[in-house]
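dumping this here before i forget
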Amino acid sequence: MNSKFNYGAVFKITREDSLSDIEQNLLQMKQSGFNTVVVWPAYFWWEEKNPDYPFATGKKVLELAEKVGIKVVMELAGQLTAMEYAPDFLMKEEYYAVDENGHIDWGQSSFGFLNYYHPEVKELVVSHFRGAVKAYKDSPALLAYDIFNETMFHSFDDYTKKAFQNWLKAKYQSIETLNAVWERTYKNFEQISFEKWKWMSVMPIADYNAFRRESIAVFLKDWYKAVKEVDSKHPIMADNVYAQSSPLGLYFRPQDDYGMKSAVDEIGMSFYPKQKNGTFEPALRHNIFDGFYSAAKGDGFWVAEMQTHNQSIFAPTTCVNSKELKQWCLEGYSAGAKSLIYWMWRPFNKGLQTLGRGLVNYKNEPTERLEVATELSKIFGEIGIIKPLKSEIAILYDPITEDIVRTISGAPDMEQNLYNLSLFGAYKAFLKNNQRPDITTIENIFDYKAVILSHQAVIGQDTAKKLETYIENGGIIIADGSFGITNEFSLASSTLPGGVLNSIVGEELFDFDNKSADFNYNGVTVKGDFGRNICKITDGEVIAEFTDGLPAIVQKNFSKGKIITVNTSVWYGYSNDSEEFKSAEAFAKALTDEICVNKISTNLDLTVRIAQNNENYYIFAFNYSNNIMSGEITVEGEINKTLNVSVEPSGTQIMTIKKAVY
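structure:
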């Protein structure tokens, strides 16, 4: 992808548009500071049939884009299959996904997905992709292709069942091993269907969810290969919604940001922070962006859809104002977004979102939102692509733990989102102290001084080995809540907490209770939650006690590093109730003061983030209050600067610090 910041909007072309209309819209985008447009659909089944059908309109759009000087992403799959690779005249009933009762699964009332394991559907997709790519690949205006917008899939048909059986065979190797893990009595893998029983083992459900998640990358790799066979030059992207690791990750869609990144060149995210029931809090927005940056593996990501306005004419509470839009865009930018695309350029003229969305109004007249989008184009154009400054602390996200925790807690009245909420609580507490933690996976923990594990209920052999090596090399593990309760096959560990890591934890689990879980740590009274673990000390050191004297926090030094185990949940309660569990903020600050060198301090109610490129550091000061914030920000460590700031209510100030040249 080119090095400049790609900035623009989705342009939904309708059958009512003339070429003159299209040119005027593209020209208006260019004049607003946009350099990129996402064109949807990429097939035009309504156009007059000629040798270029159904791509004649698309070719004209590319010609017009070249004329006005704007680059084009062709969206080959935008959730409306009948207007893309599965036109009605080619559809068969068997192509639809199937629900658990064997009936057609229409997906959602507004759009759908097909059964991508069906061999004819696979051929339908790749043949239409090849046709579109062949038609558009030589255009100078073409920037990239988007092959799967907001990934989704679930089907209970025979083709998918066969793929699931093969997936299980590859994982377990023998039916005897699967029977032992699943607590079943099969004779062969061909007998396995889509099991719902989980009384004696949760693995039938956890495995099925893992299979569906990994299926997304399977589909993407097939489609990617088909496109590259025709056009090896242009990048290929795909998109998800929010971030897999956040509390809003769409687990049952399913969503696999990390697998998606392994399958395509660029990954994008849809971001809709204003819903009918309110606006996402700032910490959640930052958490979503940082989670997606983690999946992008440091390469940066696209905001593939940034909310611009109301969902429809009948959803007035989702109307977006210019201050909100500006902050959302700058939050994503500070978190490593290297491209930003608005959803969308103009409002819908029909359908469920009639008169919804849009930077311009229904007459193509500029709005306050377009004014701020134009203002931002100057910032993005001047600064270019930046990356967030790496944190010294990270929060571990583990998809296997999410699978098993969600499945075990799947009974009525239990919190299925416990794991992701707990991770978010930790993130929010550290962010409140302006020590923003990175989100990481087990492979990348070695990049950090300390790693937070929260309700890391699953510790398998591979995870244990990496964590032990990390501590041996000087790393610090801070684990709260359920820790190493099972292995990766959901079998309860015989030594707790920590499972196979127990020998370096320094304590032994005796029982659980739901008594007061408050404790004092370095002069800070911390409120625990979600019960507590009653532990006996082996060779660890008690560094905090519950109010009744039982061990609340145990530290064990191991080689060059150490592991700190908190025998209650600190972060989960804070994710749900910031006031009642406000002590989590003080606990995070105490840990920050002990661990971090690159600290940010201010007596102002600001959220401060740091990003950088090769020449400069960029300090972002976000003011989420209704008051002007004037004073100082001190950045310690490698930057070592004190800055004067004055940030307007609901505003953002960006300060530039030149990097030292030696």
